[in-house]
Amino acid sequence: MQFYLAVKGIIRKEDEILILKRNAQDEHAPNVWETPGGGVDEKILPQEALLKEVEEETGLKIKVGEPFNVFTFVKDSGEYKAGITFLCEYISGEVVLSDEHSDFRWIKPEDFKNFPSIPSLYQEIARYAKK
User: Fold this and answer.
1) Along the 131 residues of the chain, how does pLDDT read in single tens digits?
2) Cα 86 from Cα 81, distance rounded (Å)
3) Rounded to an integer, what distance in angstroms lies between the CA atom of residue 69 and that of residue 57?
4) Cα dihedral sign for 69, 76, 2, 44?
5) pTM
6) Phi-psi bin for 78: left (phi > 0), alpha (psi -120 to 50), beta?
7) Protein fold of 3-130
8) Which end of the chain has less neighbouring CB within 10 Å, N or C?
9) Where do the structural domains in the chain lie, given as residue ranges?
């Protein structure tokens, strides 16, 4: 079994975090709310991949901080992923979404439970909210 690497970022701006809603036509988890991130290409560090993904998905400049969580999941296509979530700080920019997402929100972490998502992300953000 081969795992591919993914990265995610909990992007903090004051006391809120950024969440994105996946596009309704997405092949994996359409209309689900998530944190920004994506796959890691070969020969690139996870932190560099996250900077690139956040820039592509949101147009924001961020500072990637410490790793916060390690996770695994299986995409709807059957592909296995192992991932790292990093704590990140907002630096600058206004959110401009790519085609991958249809909406965004800056929310208090404890409010994430009110958005349709996946169980492991609810757990991750609840753990972050207690930090």
Assistant:
1) 778 899 999 999 999 999 999 999 988 789 999 999 999 988 899 999 999 999 999 999 999 999 999 998 887 777 888 999 999 999 999 999 999 999 999 999 999 999 999 999 999 999 999 97
2) 16
3) 21
4) negative
5) 0.93
6) left
7) Nucleoside Triphosphate Pyrophosphohydrolase (3.90.79)
8) N
9) 3-130
